[in-house]
Specification:
The complex is a heterodimer.
Chain A (H helix, E strand, L loop, with lengths): L2 E3 L3 E5 L4 E8 L3 E9 L6 E6 L3 E5 L2 E6 L4 E6 L8 E9 L6 E4 L3 E6 L1
Chain B lengths: L4 E3 L2 E4 L5 E6 L6 E8 L3 E9 L2 E5 L6 E5 L5 E5 L8 E8 L8 E2 L3 E5 L1
The chains are: A mainly beta, B mainly beta.
Chain lengths: ~110, ~110
C-alpha cells in the first residue's frame, strides 16, 4: 500500500532551526515534494527531490534518501510567518501515470 | 501570468443535492488534478485529467466524477451529497504529470448541511 508519515504538530522558536521528517512507503516512487499551506490558503510549492541528497533554496532545504524512504524539510532562521502546515507528498507512477500522494501534514507553530 | 482559478470559493448545499466545481489551470498547463482536503485525512487524490482524458483515479465512490474541456479547464461533480463530503476541494495544474512543480488553486470550500 501507500503510506506517508509525518509528525502532526511541532513548535519552534523564532530564529531557530526546525527539521520536519517524512517517511514513506510507496510503489513506483517518482519524486518527493514539500508544500507549505497557511490556514485557509492553497498549498504553495517549496521543494522537489528525486535524487538522494540535499536541495537548498534560501532558508529552506530538503533532503531525500530513497533507500530509507525518508525525507526531511529543514527551515532555518525561523520567522513568525513560517507558522503553517507543511505537506510531504510522494509522486507515484504505479498504474502507469503519476499521481501525488500526500501525508496528513505537520502543523508548525513558531513562537517568539 | 494568472494562477489557477477555482470557482466558486464557497458553497453550501443540502444532503442529496449535487454540485459542480470548476478549475481553470495556468495557461499552457494540460494536467489538472483534484484533491479533497479534510482536517483528519489531509489531501486525498480524486483524479487527474490530461488532454481531456482521465488518466488516474483515487479511491472515491462513483458519486465523484469529473471532466476536462479542450481548453484544459476542468470540472468535478459530486452527486447525492453526503455530510461527509464537506471539505476543501483543491485543484492543481501542471505542464504534465511528470512536472517538477504543481500549482494549486485557492480551493472551493463545500459545506453540506
Amino acid at each position: 500500500g501507500q503510506n506517508i508519515d509525518q509528525p502532526t504538530e511541532m513548535t519552534a522558536t523564532e530564529g531557530a532551526i526546525v527539521q520536519i521528517n517524512c517517511t514513506y512507503q510507496t510503489s513506483g516512487f517518482n519524486g518527493l515534494f514539500w508544500y507549505q499551506q497557511h490556514a485557509g490558503e492553497a498549498p504553495t510549492f517549496l521543494s522537489y527531490n528525486v535524487l538522494d541528497g540535499l536541495e537548498e533554496k534560501g532558508r529552506f532545504s530538503s533532503f531525500l534518501s530513497r533507500s530509507k524512504g525518508y525525507s526531511y524539510l529543514l527551515l532555518k532562521e525561523l520567522q513568525m510567518k513560517d507558522s503553517a502546515s507543511y505537506l510531504c507528498a510522494v509522486r507515484s507512477d504505479s498504474g502507469g501515470y503519476n499521481k501525488l500522494i500526500f501525508g496528513a501534514g505537520t502543523r508548525l507553530a513558531v513562537h517568539p | 501570468k494568472a494562477g489557477v482559478t477555482q470557482t466558486p470559493r464557497y458553497l453550501i448545499k443540502t444532503r442529496g443535492q449535487q454540485v459542480t466545481l470548476s478549475c481553470s489551470p495556468i495557461s499552457g498547463h494540460r494536467s489538472v488534478s483534484w484533491y479533497q482536503q479534510t482536517p483528519g485525512q489531509g489531501l486525498q487524490f480524486l483524479f487527474e485529467y490530461f488532454s481531456e482524458t482521465q488518466r488516474n483515479k483515487g479511491n472515491f465512490p462513483g458519486r465523484f466524477s469529473g471532466r476536462q474541456f479542450s481548453n484544459s479547464r476542468s470540472e468535478m461533480n459530486v452527486s447525492t451529497l453526503e455530510l461527509g463530503d464537506s471539505a476543501l476541494y483543491l485543484c492543481a495544474s501542471s505542464l504534465g504529470s511528470g512536472a517538477t512543480e504543481a500549482f494549486f488553486g485557492q480551493g472551493t470550500r463545500l459545506t453540506v448541511v
